[in-house]
Structures are given as structure tokens and as C-alpha cells.
Task: inverse folding
């Protein structure tokens, strides 16, 4: 599965609402998916699964991102999750120095 930039931007914005804004994850994901009418079922499943996993294992992904990716911003958390799930990081990704072998 490929990641599209609009999906990544939506995931980062939703994580920002959850972690910084205090929104509940279920409501934030519901609003996000309702606002994206053009996404198919696979896109929705990928985005919702990513957000719920990152919220569930936030401390784990923050620790890994701090050690390997050089930061704990929401993009780093997402890419650590993606590599752990077996996805490859595309060239346009905003994460530098992410070593997939060390994450797995």
C-alpha cells in the first residue's frame, strides 16, 4: 500500500488534535473520516488503524522516534509506526535519518 500526502497530512492533523487539543481519539477519527468523502475503505482503514495504534502505543513510538528519527513530532511517530508495520518510507517523506533496520 502506498501513502499519499493528503493521508499523512490528515493523520498528523488528527494526532495534533488528540495530543495537543485534548480531543478524544474516537471522535477525532470519526470527524476525519466523515470529512474525507473520496477515500475508499482501504484508505479509511489504514488511516484509522494508524491513528489508533499511534495513540495506543504513543510512549513506545516516542522513544523509538527520539532515538532513531531525531524527533518526536507527529510525522516521526507516524513513520516509525509505518516502518514497524512493514511499509517503506517514500522519498518525499519529511523524516530524515530513519533507519528501518533498527526499528524492526
Result:
Amino acid at each position: 500500500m502506498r501513502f499519499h500526502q493528503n493521508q499523512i497530512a490528515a493523520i498528523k492533523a488528527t494526532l495534533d488534535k488528540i495530543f495537543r487539543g485534548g480531543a478524544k481519539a474516537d471522535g477525532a477519527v470519526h470527524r476525519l473520516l466523515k470529512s474525507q468523502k473520496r477515500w475508499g475503505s482501504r484508505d479509511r482503514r489504514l488511516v484509522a488503524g494508524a491513528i489508533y495504534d499511534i495513540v495506543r502505543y504513543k510512549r513506545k513510538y516516542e522513544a523509538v522516534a527520539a532515538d532513531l528519527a531525531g524527533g518526536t513530532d507527529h510525522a516521526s511517530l507516524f513513520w516509525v509506526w509505518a516502518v514497524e508495520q512493514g511499509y517503506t518510507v517514500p522519498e518525499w517523506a519529511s523524516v530524515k535519518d530513519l533507519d528501518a533496520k533498527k526499528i524492526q
